[in-house]
Amino acid sequence: MEKSLPLHLLQANSFAIIINRSHAIFHFIAILFLIHYRLSFFFRSPETSTINTLPWLLIFASELLLSLSWLLSQSYHWRPVYRTVFPERLPDDDELPSIDVFVCTADPNKEPTVEVMNTVISALAMDYPPEKLHVYLSDDAGSDATLRCMKEAWNFATYWVPFCRKYGIVTGCPEVYLSSSEVDNGEFKDSEFKAEKEKMEQKYEVMKQRVMKIVQHRDVVALNTYSRDHPSIIEVINEYPKEEMQQVKMPQLVYVSREKRPSHHHNFKAGALNVLLRVSGAMSNSPYILVLDCDMYCNDPTSARQAMCFYCDPQTSPSIAFVQFPQTFRNISEDDIYDSEIRSIFKIYWHGLDGVGGPILSGCNFYIKREALLGNFSKEEVEGHVPNSITDGESSRMMLEEAKVLASCSYENQTAWGSEVGFMYFSVVEDYFTGFTLHRKGWKSVYLCPKRPQFLGTSTTNFHESSVQWTRWRAGIVQIAISRFCPLICGPLKMSWVHFMCYSGLALEPLLHCLSLWGFALIPQLCLFNGIPLYPKVLDPNFNIFSIIFVSAISKSLYETVVASGGELRIWRNEWRIWMMRAVTCCTYGSLDAVLNKLGMKETSFFPTNKVTDDEQFKLYEKGVFDFRAATMFVAPLVTVILVNIAALVRHFVRVLAVDDDGDGYWETMVGQMFLSFYILVLNYAVLEGMVIRRDKASIPLSVTLLSAVFSVFILLVGSVILC
């Protein structure tokens, strides 16, 4: 009777559906009234309208672009669902399918090796039959130090994994578990456990010191050269410590460094994942694959069993390609001024996507079916292989040699890898493009968000690294949006139209946001500076249209942040602020980068996110203080917008004092623009504070302020000439 029970349940959030759809209808009607108001202006007779048409056209275009972005985003809210799994109902261990775990690292200078090793160890400690678990580390730097550190990690894991199994340790990351004062739910509190834990702390400290010593003595100059030009290196780590101990069953651990040559494009992370796909196919060929970032450790050892609740349920469609878990981070502050948590995506959008076809592939923390990536190609290449145990025999040496060929940079020449097979190339956001390709083919996906985070990593906690990361993401998205792979061109094929809107909205979002937000940041202000009204008088009934749209948008975002996802008011404020900042910086530069790449004027580049924590910067982040020690290209646009808004308000108040005495009610016609400038200044007070009030090292440099002042004067002068 137990086996007939479902392994998972899906529940639609009826209350959220009613709220979301009701608001969508209401807001859409308000937008239609806005469009009617704007269009009616252009049909007025020249005698009744003395206002220049150009500023109205520009602000109307900004309103239309932002409205289009909003309309497409409603697909995320159309049918939010939540899932529950019952891993205790899974079949016996001998009936479970095997799993390959892919961990990717690219730059030991930006990705601390100790963190990488902790991620590998946590994967080895997963609650899954060890003979059915295989862990592969892809080292794109080809660093000998990483290989040596991996052997040290394996040595420690032969003690750590049995310790976790014996005492039911839930947190599989030794660095986090052993340094935490919190009591794990699985801990035994007897003297035997305490003694074992103390021994484990000592062994971990020894391993950590050895790893740090290896890293300190590596040749950095040689590493930078070797990382771009080296042969393929594949080694199975299976040597047990020499000291007496009972050998326990351990998962397979394999080090993989694909061949790199300057004359061959290595296709970034997607290329590394495809090499792991081929190498693992020759060695273990597990039907399911878990993909992890190098800093994203397994925080719950049962994630594999939870994912198998979808794949092993006979009542579930076999078309599920991947199970996506949220990305959660352990270094998020209460204020989270940079939205490092990416809260809206993993707490709101992905639940909505799950109800209309499945979430988008999200970089890491997903279990994916090998068949979905390989399709019929698996029968030609790697499906003939069966899972192998590595021994010292001739067959093992032959297998490793074959694996090295599969990891060579020339193997993919004249093949369908990256275009039809495996993880997709073309864009640096291989996750979005691969997920889109799978969904178009008819594959589905599910989103599982348990109460306990299954994976925990570290996010960017300073303004510069956050901006660099988001610029790269936006560039990759726009690269797809302006190509033949744009969702608007490719068409739904086997996708639902609502699901298609989700992909279209995400692809067009950077372009729509940067164009519309720059319009709202400058056009009304330039008109305010020159006394040109763009909105109805405050007592005009048409003014209610804009008021309703503004209040409607604010209210809905407050509901999603505070009510739906349990956030605080300051989180809502911070998210709105960073959204505006990224629109005029990251979205702008990302879109420009993609356009230049399309024109052949710039090559696609990929720089791994710096995961090294700067203590001083992190303290500022914890205090909720902006660190403006970022590239000028990210800070100058923010200061420029602030200065333009200040100039517009000052000029407006001067004009009010000079004109309003005549009784023509000048101020009534400019209330909308005055409010918009005031709103931008209040919401972005952190920038104003960094310019004027703060004098610490993380404030905005005077040189940047002066440069921005030059830009502001130029915008005011040129804009006034064009718009007036």
Automatic annotation (TrEMBL):
<keyword id="KW-0812">Transmembrane</keyword>
<dbReference type="Pfam" id="PF03552">
    <property type="entry name" value="Cellulose_synt"/>
</dbReference>
<dbReference type="InterPro" id="IPR029044">
    <property type="entry name" value="Nucleotide-diphossugar_trans"/>
</dbReference>
<feature type="transmembrane region" description="Helical">
    <location>
        <begin position="12"/>
        <end position="35"/>
    </location>
</feature>
<dbReference type="InterPro" id="IPR005150">
    <property type="entry name" value="Cellulose_synth"/>
</dbReference>
<protein>
    <recommendedName>
        <fullName>Cellulose synthase-like protein G2</fullName>
    </recommendedName>
</protein>
<feature type="transmembrane region" description="Helical">
    <location>
        <begin position="55"/>
        <end position="73"/>
    </location>
</feature>
<feature type="transmembrane region" description="Helical">
    <location>
        <begin position="700"/>
        <end position="723"/>
    </location>
</feature>
<keyword id="KW-1133">Transmembrane helix</keyword>
<keyword id="KW-0472">Membrane</keyword>
<feature type="transmembrane region" description="Helical">
    <location>
        <begin position="670"/>
        <end position="688"/>
    </location>
</feature>
<feature type="transmembrane region" description="Helical">
    <location>
        <begin position="628"/>
        <end position="650"/>
    </location>
</feature>
<keyword id="KW-0808">Transferase</keyword>
<keyword id="KW-0961">Cell wall biogenesis/degradation</keyword>
<keyword id="KW-0328">Glycosyltransferase</keyword>
